[in-house]
Design goal:
By secondary structure, the first copy, chain A, is α/β, with parallel strands linked by helices. The first copy, chain A, has 12 helices and 7 strands. The first copy, chain A, is globular and about 60 Å long. At the A-B interface, α3, α6, α7, α10 and α11 of A face α3, α6, α7, α8 and α11 of B.
Amino acid sequence: LSGSVDAPLVDGVLAGERRAVARAISLIEDGTVERARVMEALFPHTGRAYTIGITGAPGAGKSTLTERLVLRIRRDEATVGVLAVDPSSPYSGGALLGDRVRMQSHATDRGVFIRSMATRGHLGGIALATPEAVRVLDAAGKDYVMIETVGVGQAEVSIANACDTTVVVVNPGWGDAVQAAKAGLMEIADLFVVNKADRDGAREAIRELMQMLDLAETDFRPEIVPTVAVRDEGLDELWAAIRRHRRYQEDGDRLPDRRRRRIAREIRDIAVERLRRRLEGDAAELLDELAEQVRRRRLDPYAAAERLVLGAAPGAERLD
Amino acid sequence: LSGSVDAPLVDGVLAGERRAVARAISLIEDGTVERARVMEALFPHTGRAYTIGITGAPGAGKSTLTERLVLRIRRDEATVGVLAVDPSSPYSGGALLGDRVRMQSHATDRGVFIRSMATRGHLGGIALATPEAVRVLDAAGKDYVMIETVGVGQAEVSIANACDTTVVVVNPGWGDAVQAAKAGLMEIADLFVVNKADRDGAREAIRELMQMLDLAETDFRPEIVPTVAVRDEGLDELWAAIRRHRRYQEDGDRLPDRRRRRIAREIRDIAVERLRRRLEGDAAELLDELAEQVRRRRLDPYAAAERLVLGAAPGAERLD
């Protein structure tokens, strides 16, 4: 991690300059070496922002809800950063949602920074990049950082869970809560929003959620907040519920415990990712040879993995 | 991998006995040490089965299509194994689809074996378990193994792609093909099925797919097959298209190349998973200490990951 850091970039982020923040997040997406230096310089200035995850099925109204919640938070004079994490292809890369078309109501508000992020490259990419991007917004002085992501798939659910308060958005209609449970969202929810609550079935959706919560044995019972985000209804209640959950966690050691567990996962993921890169880089030729031997049934995959670890990292025989 | 292997279990699988096959797959799901021994014994008897992935959005009709395709394949006297990979919670574990309620039409056919699989434990679990379960069915003498999984999320898409022919199922209706592209399914499709093709918008869906395929530069242009699986329509055409794709791959080195690449991914995933387990096991206390230091901003996450790797695997300093 030696070498010269881009000091104007670091200073720009710390001063909350939009262009510097945008460039730092691009560095993270690209995964360059420069990123590591910039993140190292920013790191001591982080840890202040409170993070809110917004997740749910496609079409649940997460973007509108996020946009309106930002407006509500701004009324309290707090600053907000938003990361829209795009569940796009691990193959094609690139964000499908353009930042330009999103959240036009905040276009001229300097207290708000909005950014879409997408996977570039390998599977673990977005899971590793998201906490770093959160830190950039944190270092830039944002009081709140919201992470909006679609709650489908294991990787996406784990991203939505990497925050201080996780809000799960469902819609009225038979089975939406069941689908959320199936996707693993019940376990991570600190708060439920039944959005589009002016539609038929809103009461049933709330009842369904309550029944599911009755079955769960947890210290904190998540609140259920009905909203109609497009009409700005229920946003005061949602904001109040988020603040209640924050206070609950700040009472005692709950918030530091939660953050330590999250950081532990991140450290582990970075360590695992390093090995993966090593195996895809310098050890690629060995891996290809081993795969051919396995294909010909001369070696089984577990024995091949063992040889790969030994060949890629001499002395690492105790990794098993 | 020394120690006594369960010989009756191995012999039972090789003889194609249902109970032995079911038990071997349960061992894989549970991830026991016994699993490794059984898989090692079965491995030399694998490599013969042709694997077909069936994927698409929830509600696309994958289960019905799979069931009908099994019937069609059985008419050619070939035997079939089906793995329904459940995209269930990484938290709650357990398959939500019961095998008992699935595919009742095959209940008395000894040439068919059907099994749901679910994540137990960590994120990488199902991705590692699926190729092993495929090998059990392969060793049990099944000519075809079908892997049915919902095409949402990165992990699920990569599972659907780990086969010889990948079939992507879409429905009529504006945007379904676009959603499939967004989920990364366009890149992995060897063959498209427009199921429920008796509904409005089927022609538009086919046209939409054709336009997307026009933009892609690939050697093999995926065929598009309309079906109405519930009425058994289009299954002959689908089966013919799968066999054409198989012949295309068997002409030249395409199939061995594809299999070698897939095995290389699997070997790498096993190696990475070993490190992850090590970090969650013996190194858990060190990880917790490091996370607390990072939380207090005394150490940055990358430096912590470096210390973790060194502490967990002395001599592995070249893993970076």
